Amino acid sequence: AQSVTQLGSHVSVSEGALVLLRCNYSSSVPPYLFWYVQYPNQGLQLLLKYTSAATLVKGINGFEAEFKKSETSFHLTKPSAHMRDAAEYFCAVSSNTNAGKSTFGDGTTLTVKP
Amino acid sequence: DSGVTQTPKHLITATGQRVTLRCSPRSGDLSVYWYQQSLDQGLQFLIQYYNGEERAKGNILERFSAQQFPDLHSELNLSSLELGDSALYFCASSVQGHNEQFFGPGTRLTVL
Asked: Is the pLDDT of residue A86 over 60?
């Protein structure tokens, strides 16, 4: 079985501040981990993915995430928030088993204040 | 543009009716997924197909059904519609099940 927990359904930061969105996962086999972003009235799009190569993964728009097996975490960070980063962010886990089905977290809405 | 297309973009219908949502995956992708997104329930996985066969089921109601055709496009059929079925319905595709998914723009269904 696999699951994802995103801590904090809403996160608010000031423009220029550090962004930290938390994701913890549970998986009985080595996981594949993803972060997706959803802008208003759009579909989800991939920000970055972890597939057992480097534990620090760099994605688009200046985001990165670090896979920490000991903490079963895959937190998303960005050093300096921009107004355009305001969106909903989803963490997801999948594996080679379980028919490869991805399990998504409940999402975190990021608000960026000017 | 993810390469996944969904039609129609918007659909307004009445309770008790039946609708069909259509999805064309990215070229080369064999897996298709359907999701429902609403304000109160968030993003809910409905069902997955791989190369024409059902692979995984999520929180899909018995009133809903889906299929994937030989040309790999997929349709989601929603019947006996209720007000609570109003939501955004997303289709996504991937090369294989465990890979990243590419989402379509969604179909917004409004049931009046």
From this structure: yes
**Residues A114, A82, A65, A37, CA torsion sign:** positive
Q: What does DSSP say about strands A103-104 and B107-111: parallel, antiparallel, or unpaired?
A: unpaired
| B47-96 residue pLDDT tens | 999 999 998 898 899 999 999 999 999 999 999 999 999 999 999 999 87
SS (H, E, C) B29-88: CCEEEEEEEECCCEEEEEEEEECCEEEEECCCCCCEEEEECCCCCEEEEECCCCHHHCEE
Tell me the chain B residues in contact with residue A44 when contact means C-beta distances shorter than 8 Å: 43, 90, 92, 101, 103
pLDDT value of position A35: 97
Closest residue on chain B to A37 (Cα) = B103
SS3 content of chain A, % helix, strand, coil (to 5): 10, 55, 35
The structure tokens listed for B52 are: 């024409």
What confidence score (pLDDT) does residue B40 get?
Answer: 83
Largest interatomic CA distance in chain A: 44
- Provide the chain B residues 51-80 that lie in CB contact (below 8 A) with chain A: 55-56, 58
CB A94 within 8 A of CB A31: yes
